[in-house]
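Weekly sync notes, structure subgroup
Attendees: PM, AL, DS (notes)

Item 1: joint prediction request from the bench team. They want all three components modeled as one assembly rather than separately. Inputs as received:
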Amino acid sequence: MMVGKEDLGLGLSLGFPQNHHSLHLNLSPSLIPSSTDSCSSLHNSSWNDVSAPTDANSESLPAETRSFLRGIDVNSLPSTVDFEEEAGVSSPNSTISSVSGKRSEREGTRGDEIDIERACSRGISDEEDGDTARKKLRLSKDQSAILEESFKEHNTLNPKQKIVLAKQLGLRPRQVEVWFQNRRARTKLKQTEVDCELLKRCCENLTEKNRRLQKEVQELRALKLSPQFYMHMTPPTTLTMCPSCERVGNASSTVDPRSHNRNVPINPWAPAVTISHGPFDALHHRS
DNA sequence: CGCCGAAACTAGTTTACCTCA
DNA sequence: CGTGAGGTAAACTAGTTTCGG
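Output from the run, pasted for the record:
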């Protein structure tokens, strides 16, 4: 069953600037106990493990042959083997790292477990029993919904949660794990798009602000070249004159009263114009 | 403190399936 | 109705990080 983007709940905390960091609130891998759980270690390593020897063969085989062989692997063992195998049987020492060079040591003793893993690769729901071609499992709407709910609670799973969820959904823990990996990737991609859009807006606002300031500078320069008009003109745009000290400042800012008694030369063009900094100023300024 | 192995993770890719012109 | 293009999601691979012994 096809699950549309809208069904993925990608907008769960992807709103806009206010929510900008909310996505990360649930990102607490450090809170998740590191696992010595044999289940996760088994399923985690098994596929990488299997792929190593078969890849060597498959490189020299045509795609159809590879597909055929995979189909045989998937379907040649009883589908009744479920993830209980991975859930409780293996020992911590049976885990295999993805780090290269460590596999061969365990290949001999792990062969059977690998076959079991491969037998499980199609998942527990065997709608297409008898189909020799390896087919990709499409999760049902219910399965996706449950996974989404779980993802909302925590976007990472500890091994226990993974197994429970897999059992609940009738999937292998590995499938749940992959789903969460892909889901995190989608979330990150979505967040990146949001960030990109936000930066684009900031850039546009800053460009506009820059344009206005340039225009203001031009006005001020024109005034400077026409001193005979100087006293009769109101200061351009946002600049205002302090009546007591005749300093020019931003309309929104107040002139420091401590400077009122100083003998300050009238120089409205110099430093009193303050420019706000930061990209977000541009968003809120000049409404 | 550095090293090693295991586990979990990310980024990128492949593959199967679906929709639509 | 068949087909190819394009999109999406499931699954995979390689490399990195983290953590405990």
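Discussion: Residues 1-134, 249-287 of chain A have pLDDT under 50 and may be disordered.
Action: AL to compare against the crosslinking data before next sync.
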